[in-house]
Hints:
156 residues; mainly beta; Immunoglobulin-like; 2 domains; 4-stranded antiparallel beta sheet; Bacterial Ig-like domain-containing protein
Amino acid sequence: MNVLFFIGNINIGNTTTNNEGIDTFTFTVNSTGIYSYFVSYMGNINFDDSSSDNNSLIFNKINNSIIYNIEGDVKSGNTVKLTSYLDDEYGNGIGRAYLSFYVNNEFIGMVKTNNYGMGIFNYKLLEGENQFRFEYNGNEIYTSVSEGFNINIPKK
């Protein structure tokens, strides 16, 4: 039996029930919010048509975190590789997202993460106290997040 699935008035897909009359439908949500949905069966010569009442699904933004690492000789004047990993609350990397990099509250640059959520900045260290911060502004699916750390770089 053919079953139709709707979000609002838009048909998002059709499926066929199994021998027990059970049907499963999977779809991808592209943004957060409250979605009104219903299911409809058109009927046939053996069964009358039927539809569900309007129901609601609530989709909230997914939390995430930034994990960072420093590679290189941490001394004044040296360039180090700062690797950041942006992942969601389920441990999945968030690919093709933009991370901003700040040192002492000054914007240094932006990088696009790869498919695994990794972004790399190369930065020449300055002596003294340095406050590093990575930021992700979020989008319609993911929350924003900011992570930082301090390093005191002694004089050469």
